[in-house]
């Protein structure tokens, strides 16, 4: 339950299970029994920390310079409070698609997150990994796409009309898709976690403390606040395929806090559905026999249908099932009674 709902800790420091606070951390060379992979990890900053966040968009994985022409600053927010669920910020802009991305490249978002007042960029002289972290996430997705087969119109009168102008190769390949809406959610109440027991979908968003510091036991460490780039509600029908004709795209980013239990559910479902879609596209076995698009259909219903209509439909469906059960039960009970009355009459 603690993995789903987390543990709220507003203390000035975040002690590891051994009781060592991050301020009293030990470096790898200072620990006799050092474990390269920590067993238990605790938050490096208190849950009410105020942070500065900057996001740069670039076609390269190399950390961009703040003055580089290859990167574009799309978000620069100050004094964002971790754990303040009423603190929600939004930006709306337009970015130019680089040539590399038009040619099936990847568009990366570089995230710079630091405690308010501390240096953001790792190349700065006064940069300290204890107060700041950098990581990157792709903004576009490579989704499987099936090529259409050639079909023949048997009712056509001429041979030229029998073939439709469609791709004749039935192979499967991936195409680059982009969705303009992104939500960056900070997870404030994740608490202490056992690294080996975390779900793989959740663990991919965990950033361990950069220096490899440990507590006095040498087996436990710390991690930075979890920043979740939420793509759960991104539907393929709302995406744009990035190719040579797409030169600019809109970008809308929402910055907020998200509860740990909701984050765990969304990441688990999203990663499972994407994995099923990939396996189905390449002809692999899919658990349950689906093709990975079931959740896509469910999300379309939730997004495109009025919530009151969905609620009314659910209530009516439940009532219909109850009445059907009562009617079926009444039919079963009435049959032996009718036979008994017939025998007495004879």
Give structural notes.
The protein is α+β, with helices and mostly antiparallel strands. It has 2 domains: 2-291, no CATH class; 305-346. The protein is 24% helix and 26% strand. The protein has helices spanning 2-5, 99-102, 200-203, 260-281, 294-304, 307-345; strands at 40-43, 50-58, 72-81, 89-96, 108-115, 132-138, 140-146, 172-178, 181-187, 193-194, 220-223, 226-230, 240-241, 248-257. The strands form 4 sheets. A 4-stranded antiparallel sheet has the order 3-2-5-6, with no helix packed on it. Strands 4-14-9-12 form a 4-stranded mixed sheet, covered by helices on one side. The longest helix has 39 residues, at 307-345.
Which term fits the overall shape? globular
Number of domains: 2
**Low-confidence region ranges:** 8-13, 164-170
Number of strands: 14
- Indicate the mean pLDDT: 80
Helix content: 10-25%
Strand order, largest beta sheet: 3-2-5-6
Give the class from helix and strand content and strand pairing: alpha+beta
What's the tally of helices? Answer: 6
Distance between the termini: 67 Å
- Sheet with the most strands? 4 strands, antiparallel
Q: Mind telling me the C-alpha Rg?
A: 28 Å
Could you spell the SSE succession in H and E letters?
A: HEEEEHEEEEEEHEEEEHHH
Fraction of residues in β-strands: 25-35%
């Amino acid at each position: 339950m603690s993995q789903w709902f987390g543990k709220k800790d507003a203390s000035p420091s975040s002690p590891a299970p051994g009781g060592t606070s991050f301020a009293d951390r030990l470096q790898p060379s200072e620990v006799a029994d050092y474990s390269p992979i920590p067993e238990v990890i605790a938050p490096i900053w208190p849950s009410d920390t105020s942070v500065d966040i900057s996001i740069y968009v670039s076609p390269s994985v190399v950390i961009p310079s703040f003055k580089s022409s290859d990167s574009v600053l799309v978000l620069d927010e100050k004094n964002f409070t971790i754990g303040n669920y009423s603190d929600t910020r939004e930006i709306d802009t337009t970015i130019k698609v680089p040539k590399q991305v038009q040619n099936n490249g990847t568009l990366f978002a570089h995230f710079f997150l630091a405690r308010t007042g501390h240096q953001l960029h790792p190349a700065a002289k006064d940069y300290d990994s204890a107060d700041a972290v950098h990581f990157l996430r792709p903004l576009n997705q490579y989704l499987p796409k099936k090529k259409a087969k050639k079909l023949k119109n048997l009712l056509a009168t001429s041979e030229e009309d029998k073939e439709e102008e469609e791709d004749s190769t039935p192979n499967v390949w991936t195409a680059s898709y982009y969705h303009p809406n992104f939500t960056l959610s900070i997870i404030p109440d994740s608490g202490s976690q056992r690294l080996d027991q975390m779900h793989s979908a959740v663990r991919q968003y965990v950033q361990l403390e950069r220096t490899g510091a440990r507590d006095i036991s040498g087996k436990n460490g710390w991690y930075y606040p979890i920043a979740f780039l939420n793509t759960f509600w991104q539907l393929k029908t709302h995406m744009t395929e990035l190719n040579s004709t797409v030169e600019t795209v809109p970008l809308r980013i929402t910055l907020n806090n998200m509860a740990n239990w909701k984050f765990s559910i969304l990441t688990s479902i999203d990663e499972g559905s994407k994995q099923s879609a990939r396996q189905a596209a390449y002809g692999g076995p899919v658990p349950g026999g689906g093709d990975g698009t079931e959740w896509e259909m469910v999300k379309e219903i939730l997004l495109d249908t009025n919530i009151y209509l969905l609620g009314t439909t659910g209530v009516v469906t439940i009532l219909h099932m109850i009445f059907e059960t009562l009617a079926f039960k009444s039919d079963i009970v009435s049959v032996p009674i009718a036979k008994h009355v017939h025998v007495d009459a004879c």
